[in-house]
């Protein structure tokens, strides 16, 4: 097994490995895996991060095959772990730890660090031992009650990226306009409350990010996102800091679940971290 920098040619292998590994994790936990993402939508994430953050992008290779990957990003000196996984048949043999060490070396000297962890106990152990603080998640799941979208929310585009940068410096300590551009390339929709906040949602209404300067704007953005949902939604990463989101989820008729596992890990200067629902991929 060798660990080497990820190359742009690896993106399809990394995507396939991501789908396979998280399906296996879901099945091992008795959870039905989500529908497979369209590679055309998923690939810009891997391609862009391998290009913009080569010091954070590593793969483990065995017999010419990619068996593990770590992707980290660093924006305005805040570091985040976007992806860490090892092929199921090669897990628990030290590969994940070795990949994480490489990706985490890229955090050297960073002001802040962010990781959104899956419920895998190996991941929870490894991130805790890097010295980050653990904030467990609650999930809110269900089909939102039909509701009219709030009047103050409009659909945005790339010209709204400067607003996202102001908001992100507040809620997460660092702007990442290039990642918002990547999300638009991934056919996600930007929702805007002018001068106060933004959300990123998938075409089916799945919520990728909600970030705002105040709780009321964040609540309206989440209401707007839920009003667009075409079926069941899962807000999987509500920490104790996001009481505003719990209130909106309950108002929409979603059910709270405390047993789905996983945790947010933060360290150092990462802004207020509220009102904020981060993206697992872009933190
Ligand atoms: C999480 C994951 C990346 C870890 O990689 P790995 O190669 O399986 O793990 P490692 O063998 O490097 O072990 C990592 C740590 O977990 C411990 N560990 C290994 N197997 C374990 C097990 N079955 N139960 C609990 N801890 C275990 C190791 O001892 C190590 O801790 P240490 O460094 O303090 O000794 C990998 O298991 C995986 O892909 N899981 C599914 C996808 C996922 O959840 N990714 C994380 C997303 S945030």
From TrEMBL:
**UniProt domain N-acetyltransferase: residue ranges:** 1-168
A Pfam family that this protein carries is: Acetyltransf_1
**GO molecular function list:** acyltransferase activity, transferring groups other than amino-acyl groups
Instruction: Cite the InterPro entries for this sequence.
Output: Acyl_CoA_acyltransferase, GNAT_dom
On the tree of life, the source organism's domain of life is Bacteria
Q: What protein am I looking at? A: GNAT family N-acetyltransferase
- The organism is Solirubrobacter phytolaccae
């Amino acid at each position: 097994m060798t660990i080497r920098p990820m190359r742009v040619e690896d993106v399809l292998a990394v995507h396939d490995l991501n789908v396979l590994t998280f399906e296996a994790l879901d099945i091992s936990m008795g959870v039905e895996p989500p529908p497979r993402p369209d590679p055309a939508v998923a690939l810009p994430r891997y391609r862009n991060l391998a290009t913009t953050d080569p010091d954070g992008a590593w793969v483990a290779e065995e017999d010419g095959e990619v068996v593990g990957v770590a992707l980290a990003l660093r924006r305005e000196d805040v570091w985040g772990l976007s992806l860490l996984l090892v092929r199921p048949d090669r897990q628990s043999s030290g590969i994940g730890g070795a990949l994480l060490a490489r990706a985490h070396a890229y955090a050297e000297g960073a002001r802040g660090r962010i990781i959104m962890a899956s419920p895998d106990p190996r991941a929870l152990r490894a991130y805790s031992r890097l010295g980050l603080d653990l904030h467990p998640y609650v999930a809110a799941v269900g089909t939102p009650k039909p509701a009219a979208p709030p009047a103050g929310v409009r659909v945005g585009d790339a010209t709204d990226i400067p607003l996202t940068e102001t908001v992100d410096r507040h809620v997460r300590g660092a702007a990442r306009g290039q990642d918002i551009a990547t999300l638009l390339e991934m056919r996600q929709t930007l929702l805007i409350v002018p001068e106060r906040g933004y959300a990123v949602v998938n075409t089916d209404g799945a919520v990728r990010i909600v970030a705002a300067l105040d709780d009321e704007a964040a609540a309206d953005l989440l209401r707007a996102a839920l009003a667009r949902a075409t079926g069941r939604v899962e807000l999987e990463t509500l920490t104790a800091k996001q009481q505003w989101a719990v209130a909106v989820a309950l108002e929409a008729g979603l059910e709270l679940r405390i047993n789905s596992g996983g945790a947010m890990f933060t360290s150092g200067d990462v802004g207020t971290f509220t009102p904020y629902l981060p993206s697992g991929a872009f933190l």
